[in-house]
Amino acid sequence: MEFREAENKDLQAIVDLLHNDTLGAGREKSSDEIDQRYVKAFDLIKQEPNNSVFVAVKDNKVVGTFQLTFIQNLTYSGGIRAQIEGVRVYEELRGTGLGQLMINKAIELAKDKGAHMVQLTTDKKRPEAIKFYEKLGFVSSHEGMKLHLI
After folding, report:
1. What is the pLDDT of residue 138?
2. What is the pTM assigned to this prediction?
3. Per-residue pLDDT for 106 more than 80?
4. DSSP notation for 21-51
């Protein structure tokens, strides 16, 4: 298993992973021709030094992905938080430990950056994901709130 920063050639596979999900199927656009909004977003992410998309690659195939963003704060004496987003594992490899390896990689990268905390959110409609993150030591310490603008 190889973990690396995503490249342009990985974008279609990443979008397919995001789409192949209970909630993602209703909000992501997966087709043979990639929606240019994903291309634009990926280009913008690559331009930000504190924001990266990573892929897990097995046998030259993208089988997992996550986004890791570092947020500089004034709280915690000017600490850095690492935000994990968009964690997805290829359907046939779910339950094999790949997700744990990806989260461990994100935590390792966060430590290397000097982050004092790793945080993530998961939808309440994903009880299996909540159990997964709790098993890895994440604690539901806050009530998250969102306001969708579109």
Report:
1. 96
2. 0.92
3. yes
4. STTHHHH----SS--HHHHHHHHHHHH-TTE
